[in-house]
Amino acid sequence: MLRYSKERLAEEKSITDIYFKAQLELNVRKELYENFRRKLTDEELASLDDEDIKVPLERYISVMSAGYFGGKAPTYKVKAFNKDKDKIIKELFNHETNDEKEIVEIKELIKHINDYNNDASHFLHMVLDYLIKRACYEIYYKDEKTGEITIARSDALETIAIWDYSAKKNLIGIYRIIRTYMANGEYQQMIELTTADGKRYYYDTPEKRKIFGTPAYEQKFKDEPLFKENIKEQQPKKWDDDIPATAIENCDGIAIFEPVISLIRAYERCIQNSRNVFKYNDEAILKVRGYTPENPMIIQNEKGEDIINPARQKEDEYVLTSRVRYLDGNKDVNSDIAWVEKNVNDTALQNHKKTLIDIICLCSFCPNMTDLGFTQADNNAALEKKFFSLQQYIATFEGDFEEGLKRRWRIILEKFNKEKGKTYDFRDIEIKLNRNLPSDVATMITNALKIRGLVSDDTVINLLGLDLDATSELAKMDLQNEENIQKNLQQMQMMGQAGVEQDNKEDKEDKQDDKVTDLTDTQKAQKLTADNKKEQTKVVNKQINKEE
Q1: Exposed site from 177, 301, 324, 502, fewest CB < 10 Å?
Q2: Are 152 and 164 members of one domain?
């Protein structure tokens, strides 16, 4: 960790001093990164043979750990507006909290910026840098064309932070060393120094670099510093009175796999030795006892030089390729034919390799995925137990990442407040760093529902582990319940109206039936009267006919 005062940082000669101190740390980071990559050069690939075995456990440890901690993007929650609590906070700390409208705006602002910058991928690579290179950095700037806030990762192989001497770490500068290679193979180095006052640029030359620190340098350049500032490229500050960047550096200065590098090399040697034994046995010498070759092994040529006897080569070849061996024995020596092989205690060898792997995983806090207990873990609780050691390691720097993310949103919101006339407060943003484990959603839902009624619905939603905003979900539920109530009322009203109409209809039909019945009876009476009249007429007519 580089510490300087602001006054000294402003001096041009300090840039050269910082360069050499920074270079020591950056060289170590480069070595650690090469251990992680385990990538062969073109020359190494050309000369690669079976003797060179590499087991890239550094990569396994780094990727597994980074995936567990950074495989899921952080989630952000803005504190819900509480009139009574906010009044107390204002009285005690003179802190104006965000109102309900501002809370919604901050949520949308965070989501938009994260989506634009692909925050999930960005965060994972930040974690990888931290675990491998012992530090990670991000720089903020506003795209002049689109107006979008851009969050860029600055490579830890060329970046280092500068802090002041205060008790609490206070970032006062971001120091980047950038090399530009020329056609002749030489390079020029540019230093970009970002402070609260803006950006300054310094350059060296191959000529000055080659003789720096020698009397020839003092004579030629008259004690000029190695790096000279280019005033024309100087950029004024564009972000309030703070550095638009965040630096998270490992205070212990240890990469996650650094303590086990020697153990990894020992494991590689063990694998190599095992391979050598098998290779020796594949190329074993045939031992023949009780048989005397007809031809000698060595003969002399015309020049008197010793050479291998071609006849003996043919004889040996015949013995090796023949499917049947006939050996003459005698009383003193028993006939025998066998391969000369190395005996391997495979059990001891496997135990030794397992011991090395167990110690490597133990000292790097990374779980062994091939462990039997790991493969038999059938639920999230069992998996979390296997990751317990890694969780303890992460706890040592998790707070640094939370602090770094708080700084990010403080700087961004302050810029928005200045440009848009807003009063957004970053202190109302709650940051949650998630763990990347397989989710047993059914079990989580069952467990959450078991405690519903004992705790608030807000707590139940948070226990689901579904990356939901409890406040937003409860608001949606209230709105949904209100809509359902309105729909039920409307349906009840419609059903009631329909019932009244049905009753009225039935009353009308009953009256109509009664009327129909009355008319039928009257018609029957009228018909009966008419029939009687007809009968009477017939009787009278018959009587008249008789008298005539």
Answers
A1: 324
A2: yes
